[in-house]
Write a structure and sequence with these properties.
Elements lengths: L18 E5 L6 H11 L3 E3 L2 E3 L13 E3 L2 H9 L3 E7 L2 E6 H10 L2 E5 L2 H10 L4 E7 L3 H11 L4 H15 L7 E4 L3 H16 L15
Helix pairs in contact: 1-7, 5-6
Length: 214
């Protein structure tokens, strides 16, 4: 089913932009979901995070992440340019604030792929405009199979990710929505339903909006 380009529909009243937060333990399939969703859901933009970790083979600089040095990251952090930041698996991650501020002010919607620590910071900074969506694999066994299927890490790191995943899974209650990612297509369809519903909430309208005021 084709997506409806909500932002170009003149029948919809003006509203503030939304920040959709997508979080998940490693191996839940979050990256596949967001990459597919950006093509399938109209009017959804991706917030490109900074990271100091090494680029993976399937990632592109400036598209999946902006890969920076620790020095560059610390400069952005100390100058107040980041809306959130966290240290995860010996690497730093952060979200530039300026694009989020601009999107919310202009009624555009952003999708963030961030961890639980970062999500908490974003929700504190944008309490009216942030929507949390948590993604889980159907079972822990399947999540472990996905992590091992990557064949990119040694056993000690896999075990560390598995322990961390059990801890992170408990944070789903902090989010508004939960997606069990058994099939990517169904997960993206559910994400689209969430996006469309949030866009239509009366609480999202700009305060100056007055119906039939002509």
């Amino acid at each position: 089913m084709a997506s409806i380009p909500l932002q170009s529909d003149d029948s919809l009243p003006p509203r503030r932009g939304l920040i959709f937060i997508l979080s998940a333990p490693s191996g839940a399939g979050k990256t596949t979901i967001y990459r597919t969703a950006l093509k399938a859901i109209a009017g959804l933009e991706f917030s490109i995070s900074l990271t100091t970790r090494a680029r993976r083979e399937d990632e592109a600089d400036g598209i999946d992440y902006s890969f920076v040095s620790e020095e560059e990251f610390k400069r952005s952090q100390s100058s107040g340019e980041l809306a959130e930041w966290a240290r995860v698996f010996e690497s730093s991650y952060g979200t530039p604030r300026a694009p989020l501020d601009a999107a919310v002010a202009s009624g555009r919607d952003m999708l963030l792929d961030i961890d639980i620590q970062g999500a908490r910071q974003i929700r504190a900074l944008y309490p009216r405009d942030a929507v949390g969506i948590f993604v889980l694999a159907p079972t822990f066994a399947e999540l472990e199979e996905r992590l091992r299927g990557r064949a990119t890490e040694e056993e000690s790191k896999i075990q560390h990710r598995l322990r961390k995943a059990r801890e992170e899974a408990e944070a789903y209650i902090e989010y508004e929505y939960l997606i069990i990612n058994a099939e990517v297509a169904k997960s993206v369809a559910r994400l689209e339903t969430i996006v469309n519903a949030e866009r239509l909430k009366v609480s999202r309208l700009r305060r100056e909006f007055a119906p039939w005021n002509s």
